[in-house]
Structure formats: C-alpha cells, structure tokens
C-alpha cells in the first residue's frame, strides 16, 4: 500500500475517532449537564410563579381583613344602615375594576348572602352596579346562599382566623381569601364572613408573567386534553 494512501486512511481513522469521542462527550457529559441546567432553571421559574401567586393571595387577604374587621361591615350584615353602607361602599363598579377584584361575597352567619359581586356584573350609565340576573348564578358561585360546610366559611371568631388559597370554580381558578366579620376592634362574635377573590384568567396570568418575566400557563388538573394528560404524567412524587 502506498504511503499516501496509508496517510489518508490514518487521517480518516483519526478524524472518525475524534468525531466519535466528541459525540460521546456531548451525549454522556455535555448534554446531561445542559438538561440538568435547564431543569434547574425551570424549577426556579416555577418557584417565581408560585411566589407571585402567593403574593396575590396575600394581598387579597390583607384587603379582605380591611373590609372584614370593620364595624360598618359588622353592622351591615345585621341589617343596620344597609342603604348607606351599600351606597358608600358596594355599588360602584369602578372600585372593583380599579382593585381588580373579581368576586366579593358578604355572607351572613346562616349562609345567606348579604351582597354578591362577580366580574361581568352590569352597571348603569352612572357606573352603579345593577342587581345580577338569576341566570348569572353558577352552581359553585351562587347568588343567594352558601352551604354552611363550604370551605371558605371555615373561619372562627378569632381575628387571626382566615382561609385563603386557590379555588377551582366553573368560571376558572379563583385566588381567594375569607375572614370573619368582626368590629373595628377585632371583637366578636362574628356576624358573618367576608370573601374576596380574583380570577386567575388570561389577563391576570399575563400580569403575573410580566412581573416574573416568565411565560407560563395554568391548566386544570381535571383537564383530559392530550397536553394536560402528558404533563400530569410527568408530575410524579420524584419529579414534582
């Protein structure tokens, strides 16, 4: 065999070995490192999203506390100065829009609703809310009464008692907080429960995405679509 041919074969073999070694390093060393790095970054992003949602719930709880520990609200639930309270505090659609409140329930101790508001309720030309139509009722967001065993009513007469979190509803996920209605001095017994919520809709998700600089979506765990099913299949205890 000629020397030139031998040199070519040796060169090709060397290149092949180097390429194989590089591929092996990429596959067994570099690629896993990048995958691990991406997973760690994804976990950090997820943590930021969870923290942003938790902050929203905390803000709702603070707002709910402000309304619930108030003698005017305490009296209102007992049918004292009803018209004056509603005129001053409840009928202006602008307030709900400005505070991004999508749901407000003032519940008496027997579960009947002294006041309800859900985003989408209509208002007149002066911006005053109109009474909701009966057809606007939802099975899990009624306008007349809540069952006494409803989880949002599980508060006590203690001023520190509260229920908050994420509630799935027929209108989508709801960030929500509830507090016992007490006097301005945080004294009871409670006359009812104040519930304030914010729907985690597309607009709210976009606001949170802008805050966290993370694009994310919210899927219902009961969703049977192929995308949701595939994602849930990966969410196992060892890979939460």
Share of helical residues: 40-55%
SS elements, strand count: 5
Q: How do the strands of the widest beta sheet line up side by side?
A: 2-1-5-4-3
Query: What integer is the average pLDDT?
Result: 86
SSE string, helices as H and strands as E: HHHHEEEEEHH
DSSP summary: helix tally: 6
By secondary-structure content and strand pairing, the structural class works out as alpha+beta
Rg from C-alpha positions?
Answer: 28 Å
What percentage of the residues does DSSP assign to strands (E)? 15-25%
Spans with pLDDT under 50 lasting ≥5 residues?
none
Q: In angstroms, what separates the terminal alpha carbons?
A: 62 Å
Largest β-sheet summary: 5 strands, antiparallel
Q: Outline, from the CA principal axes?
A: elongated
Q: Can you offer a commentary on this structure?
A:
- This protein is 45% helix and 15% strand.
- It has six helices and five strands; from the N terminus they run H-H-H-H-E-E-E-E-E-H-H.
- It has helices spanning 3-68, 71-77, 82-89, 93-99, 202-212, 226-234, and strands at 103-108, 113-118, 163-169, 172-180, 192-199.
- The protein has a five-stranded antiparallel sheet with strand order 2-1-5-4-3, covered by helices on one side.
- Strand 3 (163-169) and strand 4 form a beta hairpin.
- Helix 1 (3-68) crosses helix 5.
- The model has no long low-confidence stretch (mean pLDDT 86).
